[in-house]
Design goal:
heterodimer; A: 6-stranded mixed sheet; globular; B: about 280 residues; MetI-like fold; 2 domains; 2 strands
Amino acid sequence: MSKLSLKGVIKRFGEHTVCDGIDLDVNEGEMVCLIGASGAGKSTLLRCINLLETIEDGEVLLDGEDISLPGLNPQPVRQRIGMVFQSYNLFPHMTAAENVMLAPRRVYRKSRAALRPEVTELFERFGLADRMDHYPDQLSGGQQQRVAIVRALAMKPEVMLFDEITSALDPQLVGEVLDVLRLLKGSGMTMVLATHEMAFAREAADKVCFLKDGKIVEEGPPDMLFEAPQHADTQRFLERALK
Amino acid sequence: MTKNTAAGKTRRQIYEDRLRRRSLIVACASSLAVFLAVFLLVPMAPGWDKVKASFFNWEVFAKTFPDLLRAFKLDVAIFLWSAPAIVILGLLVALARDTRNPALFPLRILGAAYTDIFRGVPVVLTVYLIGFGIPGLGLPRPWNSPYIWGSLALVLTYSAYVAEIFRSGIDSVHASQRAAAQSLGLSEGDSMRFVILPQAIRRVIPAQMNMFIALQKDVALLSFIGPVEIFRQAGVFKSLLANFTPYVGAAVIFLAVTIPATRYADYLMAKQNRERS
């Protein structure tokens, strides 16, 4: 059984259909990359998975359990699915450590003292040990994004969603964030990424999906998709993207 | 050649020095002209001697000032117990107006009606209606005090404004902050309390300070329903001495409080604008 499974997911904003019948299976420990032009529906799809958006039709299954059931309380689901955003979205009025500890404190009712050791360990693991008590505006973009990843990880999610997390970064800072993703993949995290980093997708993904106009036009292992794209749209997109 | 050898200044610096000197001279000259005009022309007005005697009588000023200052303590006291109530009620109304829970829908309507009504009625009218109306119900002794109901009138009016300012602050926090909070599994309430509100409140502090400066001045409206605060005290002196100078004294006392407070609010506002850009 797939860890995460989407069946015929449809999402509309008014008249505009953003996700038009998406089927997708993500196995435990897999990294799936969604590629495609801006507006193809990648971000919206991720937001549908952790219920930041409600879907019009279809199903989202987590461990075979329908989490898109209308009326379902989204909170417990979101605790199991972490998300990292393009614009980091750290809480600017809290230090890095406070950002990370807020949700475990409130949701798991743990004290700061009880959390401090494991949070410190997370910061150390991602090379941020000396940044714990800095405020977001005292951190570089790459550091902020890594703190955002740590913040999501502190909830011990089973699946992580990454929404173009390197798109807002200066080119020289992209590497340090991609390193974190490699580290996470090494630890067996199940991950779905919307990304424009073709080289990274090709190197690290287990599966790549090309989206256009809210549909998955083509999917497959990165070697196959990048070397021998079958669909004309995929070929055109890759030609432009890899130039 | 880019350097002026004599002064060691670039020609740009020399040019800017000259501009600065010129604007300084112009500013001084025009200020002097205006002040001279006021000092020379106003006393030439036919009624000046009378106005001077009844508004700017130094003896009356010196004699009444200590009592005015004492009466002003009451204004400060009314301000001090009204302000916290306004912050709390304003925040509650702002939250009520933003609630999405259908069970709380009546609260939302009430919140909207409340802000509409109390922002739509002149403060002095609210002071009259509540300050005379409620004690008119024939309440027993401590409960017919104009202090209570006058303060309540101020609290109700100012909470309506303060609530709207809080609401604009809440709306100004970007939706991505709420999304980030929710994606971590935080409840709506926790997202509001720990993520949205702290940012919203910080942003509206300068605007709220301006509201509270206005409140300090509007405390004087309670004089209409009884309490002998500074404005009323000045009125008493005016009748007693047949002289308007006590009003000037009262104005001086208000300014001593409001000008520093206004400057401070402006400073906070400017600082915030700098930080955001």
